[in-house]
Amino acid sequence: MKKILLLTTLLGGTLLTSSCEDKLFQEPQTSKVLNNFLRNETETEEYVNAVYANLQANGLYGLYLPAFSEIQSDNTYDEVPANDDGIYGQLDQFTTIPSNSLISSVWTQSYSTIQKANTVLNRIGSISYATDATRQARIGEMKFIRALLYFNLVRLYGDVPLVTQETTDPNAYFGQGRTASSQVYDQIKKDLTEAISVLPTTTSQPGRVVKTAAQSLLAKVHLTLKNYADAQTLLQTVVSSGQHTLMSNPADVFSISNENNKEIIFAVQFAPGVNGNTEGSTMFQQFSPSGTVSGAKGHDLPTKSLYGLYNSADKRKSAYLTATAAGTPWSKKLMQPTTVITDGGSDFVVLRYADVLLMLAEVQNELGNTSGAATALNLIRTRAGLANTTATTQSDLRSAIDLERRFELVGEGHRWFDLLRSGNAVSVMNDWFKTNNIQITITSNNLLMPIPQSQINTDPSIKQNPGY
């Protein structure tokens, strides 16, 4: 099978169904079901697949999270802010309220998936496996997924509850409040370091986490924390591993016929025509301009200003983007489904080699190695059909790398986090609003999302972020 992790039902749907309730820490259906289920390798493998499958949820990489991490930036916007009760429009216009269902879905589905990973990690040590290598790989996979979700949560919400133990008591963690971001980051680094030590270099099942995925993610964590030397070591390890390379043609990176290619380090898997057309992605429909396809919503569209910045010789402009007759840009990284419009086959790429090279350029530059930074940056520019960068100073290279990340990674859920990491989110966005005659001004209070109101109502020890 080309895909793994395409389960949408397990034990009659018991273990994979995401609850609609608002509690953060819910009993994973019932302890009786789990205690009677996770008894051997076969059942544990199914539950591991359930953790992966959770990543397809709307609140995660199925729809909301990619928009969440782009639409607040100068990369993308919401065409019709009132669509879908304004949940995307609020993000775009910085009017987000704590009862926004997108905000709560990202929160609750992240913790639901973390809890499933906790369950596997708590139990897998006592379950007989045919090979210990497989058991260790699964431990690494679960720690990677847990770290990935906490990394998203801490960047979006700030201090968040840190839960690393399985619990069958839905009230076990109520009252603990929010854990300091520094402690959350410590756990993320611990999980990824331990994952690196046990994950395989390669896998015969596309979609599974491998060692370079954990190394790349840990490098991004260190980059975020400005631990540049640590990030550099990890990134150079990924480069020297020989496991990844740039596709020679940008158009090949996201082609459905070329999924899980050598440039892809980790992607959430989607496939059409499976389980009654429920395992495909809805992103193409949701992120297409109004009137282009049936049910198009115009969410998370590339801004016209970004589209206009591409050099005419840049291969990525036509490989990654297109535009309507009226000039509205949209993404070609999400391929149009051939049958059911809500059953797209495009995987969502979380980590890829181009990002690794751009991160390496950034850390080299911050460490004062401008020559090394330019070398890494030029690998991306050469693939795009562009001349080498003319930037030579650290300041100019910093700007050049930042712009290249926009051109290369648009729509992949990086730009807002890049702005947060650089500390330029407020100034960049206020300048962008002013340039485009948009009457919006943001402050530092807009850099974190509100804690979902439903969570605060459930657990009074969870305090709201400033400004909401």
Plain-language structure description:
- This protein is mostly helical.
- The chain is built from 19 helices and six strands.
- The protein has helices at 31-35, 41-54, 58-62, 64-68, 87-93, 101-123, 132-157, 181-198, 211-224, 228-240, 283-286, 304-309, 315-320, 353-366, 370-383, 394-409, 415-422, 425-435, 453-458, and strands at 76-77, 264-268, 301-302, 321-323, 329-331, 348-352.
- It has a two-stranded antiparallel ribbon. Strands 2-6 form a two-stranded antiparallel sheet. A two-stranded antiparallel sheet has the order 4-5.
- Helix 8 packs antiparallel against helix 9.
- The radius of gyration is 21 Å and the shape is globular.
- The relative contact order is 0.13.
- The model is unreliable at 1-32 (pLDDT under 50).
Low-pLDDT regions: 1-32
Q: How many E-type strands?
A: 6
- The termini sit apart by 47 Å
What does the average pLDDT come to? Answer: 91
- N-to-C order of helices and strands: HHHHEHHHHHHEHEHHEEEHHHHHH
Number of DSSP helical runs: 19
How would you classify the helix and strand content by structural class?
mainly alpha
| Spatial ordering of strands, largest sheet | 1-3
Sketch the major β-sheet: 2 strands, antiparallel
| Beta-strand fraction estimate | under 5%
- Radius of gyration computed on alpha carbons: 21 Å
Shape: globular
Helical fraction equals: 40-55%
